[in-house]
Amino acid sequence: MEMFLMVLCMSMLGLALTAIAFSSATRGLDDREPAPKQPIVELPAMPAAQFFTDRATLPMAARTHLPPVPVEALLLQLEQHIRLEHAAAEAFLEFPTAQSLHSRTTSPLVH
C-alpha cells in the first residue's frame, strides 16, 4: 500500500511539473501580433492529371514493331535465372566470402 501511495504521489508531482512547464512555454502566445499576411501568389495553372484517360496506350513492344515474345520463352529464361541465383546462394552458404557475396551474377536478367 505504501508503494502504491508513493507511486501515486510521484505521478501527481510529475503531472504538476509538466503542467507548469507547459503553461510557462505557452505563456504570451496570445499576446503576440499576428504576422502580416503575405499576398497570395497565383501559380500558373497546371494541366489536368491524365491518370484516368480515355486514350489507350500501346505497350512498348507494339510501339517499336518488335515481334511478340512467346510466354514459354520468358518462363524458361526466368527459370534459368532462378536456378543461377539459387546455385550462387548455395555456393555462398558453402563457402562464404566477401568476394563471392559482391560478385556479379552470370544471369542475363540483371536489374
Entry summary:
This protein has four helices and no strands. With 111 residues, it is an all-alpha fold.
* N-C termini distance: 66 Å
Query: How would you classify the helix and strand content by structural class?
Result: mainly alpha
**Cα gyration radius (Å):** 34 Å
Low-confidence stretches: none
Strand content: under 5%
Average pLDDT, to the nearest integer? 79
Into which percent range does the helicity of residues fall? 40-55%
Please provide the count of β strands.
0
Number of helices: 4
User: Which shape, going by the Cα principal axes?
Assistant: flat
Query: Major beta sheet, specifics?
Result: none
Element order, helices and strands? Answer: HHHH
